[in-house]
């Protein structure tokens, strides 16, 4: 037997082990409150309607999207179907029990814009359809060949479409990988009994174990399917920012941007306060992202947007004069708090909390001018203090808009 066929059969065995895990323990366990989603009271994070500018900055916003949820598990497809009734949702997964739960959930809420099918995402072409938006969170890192999986998803994108991807991050999960090794050494298997043992083990972890970075509430029992997913998974790889770059490049696709880009912009972090601004300034965005990940230390996942190779990235669209012609929109999960003369801005979708604060007198006119229709140039021209292209106030306002953008507090659309 050649090495290739040996690894091929090993891959097939592991594929089956992954499928069996999710067949027996569908994920996630907790089904979201779809009534709240339908009522708009619970907004799915980074969804393609509210975050349209982020995924499709060059296209007019639309709700009648064709959406593929690849490796949909139990909840994502019904949530998107409920939140965007005008969209057509296709969910695929290798686990029939996960699809059944999604189906029951959808039927209970009378959702008709959803179609579910047992299919490996590597075979997405078999759907014979293409999509405006493909959601694939928490799946590629369980495949034998994540690059082939990503390439297959790129192959079903409509022209101008976007992929929303989440893969595990290496450093933030270090404590979890220690426990995976521990479980392997003890010979724990994917079954209810061993799942319970792993569950008990988590409760007994000593304080300060690096796993507590991932799950701080040590005393709270983590549900068995979640324990299985974390500790007894037959196949789980993780990525650094460099790994993400290689994954996207090797799939022949284009990295568009991080979903929470503040977390990858070390210029916004304490590194500048540490006097490292000049060293950072000379690095390219990938190097900066790598530095940010090492500095934060706690990122447990990377969420990012991937497009076809010909699409322009935000860096290409909004640099220099591009920013003047952009139309800013407020980020969907923006939190604004005012404390006297100080305003604090944050985005509740961030994995690692991040805050931008400053003088209300400076931020308020910039934020109030954002109407989702006018360009940055029009907004600056309309205010006497920023109207002159030479004024320091205009340069300062442009800097602030850039900062708001890289902090994920506003999004930018390409103007007409
Ligand atoms: C951790 S769950 C994530 C579910 C969902 N994407 C979410 O974000 O909640 C991983 C899912 O991927 C599915 N899966 C694993 N390998 C797959 C493959 N090759 N093709 C399609 N789905 C797969 C599993 O059955 C499981 O439902």
What report would you give on this structure?
There is one protein chain. This protein is 41% helix and 18% strand. The chain has helices spanning 3-24, 34-38, 52-55, 76-83, 96-108, 146-154, 174-186, 192-203, 224-231, 241-250, 270-281, 285-296, 314-318, 321-325, 360-368, 376-381, 384-387, 392-406, and strands at residues 66-70, 88-93, 114-118, 131-137, 157-168, 254-258, 301-307, 326-330, 334-339, 342-347, 355-359, 410-414. The strands form 3 sheets. A 7-stranded mixed beta sheet has the order 3-2-1-4-5-7-6, with helices on both faces. Helix 4 packs parallel to helix 5 (96-108) and helix 8 crosses helix 9. The termini are far apart. Mean pLDDT is 93; it is low at 1-6. S-adenosylmethionine (SAM) binds at residues 18, 22, 27-28, 71-73, 75-76, 92-95, 98, 120-122, 137-139, 142-143, 229.
